[in-house]
Amino acid sequence: xxxxxxxxxxxxxxxLNENINSVGxxxxxxxxxxxxxxxxxxxxxxxxxxxxxxxxxxxxYNDNIKLIQQVCEIEHKKIIFxxxxxxxxxxxxxxxxxxxxxxxxxxxxxxxxxxKIIVNGTENYVILRLGAxxxxxxxxxxxxxxxxxxxxxTLSKSSTFNYILYEDILNFIKIxxxxxxxxxxxxxxNNNVKLEDTLKIINKDVQYGSYKYKTFKVNNNKxxxxxxxxxxxxxxxxxxxxxxxK
Length: 246
Prior knowledge:
The protein has 246 residues and is an alpha/beta fold. The protein has helices at 11-19, 57-73, 106-121, 141-146, 166-179, 195-202, 221-224, 234-245; strands at residues 2-6, 23-25, 39-43, 78-84, 125-130, 132-134, 160-161, 163-165, 183-187, 193-194. Helices cover 35% and strands 17% of the residues. The strands form 3 sheets. The chain has a 6-stranded parallel sheet with strand order 2-1-3-4-5-9, sandwiched between helices. Helix 2 runs parallel beside helix 3 (106-121). The radius of gyration is 18 Å and the shape is globular.
């Protein structure tokens, strides 16, 4: 079995590459992937912007969509793809929900397109729709505050998020590889939490903005029927991560 972490330079991909016996793949060495029926591709790569300017449209397409087409064309055993819960735009959604593109940002739409490419391009796939990530290489507001790198935000205090840990994603990936699970999974905690309450938990202050970011309530029964890893509250993951960084 040959495991490739595609997008291993930063973020979750870097963490997975450090904790799985794997080969890290990025633009510079993509050609080093060799066709093999035992290949497992863990795809973390994505464009840095959710709202690219027009001069970055091709790069956005290349990173978020074309790359997936290329991966599907290489001989493999399984593709594990990192998607996002931002694809949902209504509460109580699950993996089988019909998603309307209305109000979705370009990033979420590109993830849905990539998902469809995978579903139609390979039989053995796992698509992970992830909540807000807490990990060593995360760069969201919580992580910046805990590293004392941010004092203000455009987000309002009523913005909502669903927090999950790098290590929990890693452990679930190991489960799906070892047990041959397939399909789409919402990797989220049992609840969302307001930004105001989040900052109380991590004991940080910030100058708020006016933009209200909303994470819709997402059903996680499917993953909870396999493992108890995500059967917990966002607050628990926040407390664990805060302790980890101390």
